[in-house]
Design a protein that fits this description.
about 250 residues; Nucleotidyltransferase, domain 5; six-stranded mixed beta sheet; five-stranded mixed beta sheet; alpha/beta; 7 helices; single chain
Amino acid sequence: MVLLVDVGNTSIVLGFAENHVIEKTYRFKTSTDKTADEYYILFKSLLDKYSPEKVIISSVVPIVTSALKKMCDKYISRDVIIIGPGVKTGIQLKVDDPKTVGADMIADCAGAMMHYNEAIIIDLGTATKYIYVKNGIFYGCSIAPGVAISMKALVSNAALLPNIELVCPKKVIATNTITCMQSGVIFGAAAQVDGMIERIRKEIGKDDLPILATGGLSKLIVPLCKSNVELVELLTLEGLFEIYKKNVA
């Protein structure tokens, strides 16, 4: 059994994979103040249940990466792969500075290449990332504030606006403060996705590029998009598992 770990700024997603199949996934809140032992206590019931022998980690939060590496060394296995320099990913980074490309985006690309030779990936997480990949080459991306970040910015900078739940309202033109905010942030995010898809396709010169969406908020936003967007919730973990196989073959 292989433990797949995707560490984002908001969530840590664990996947347990065996025989080319991701059997189960679990989502936890990312905490930068937890020690290796505290993370072990948090994950212990799952680790006992699945008994993983190998681990691969994709992380954009270095302090959490360090804690999880120590946890794995102490309680699971020292045979831990952390996405970074020296790891075979199958993805070529055609950018100004490859070191600045997040491990999650590399995993997204590896996952996308299991579905299509060329695609636009939309990762709707803490940040919303628009990624273009073709034949295993990462050509770059666009990064925008994520849905939750946009909501927090709105609330923190407007004294009379309350903290609200991210729930899709029934109509775009709403009649009370809460649903007005929900409409603006959520429908606005969907409109941004549609607009960015159109611009990227025009820039690349292809109107029929497949669009894959993943990330914690993808299930909320994708159904509201006018573009044909394929929801692949486990894309990042699929990519992680594919990278794992490249490094143990």
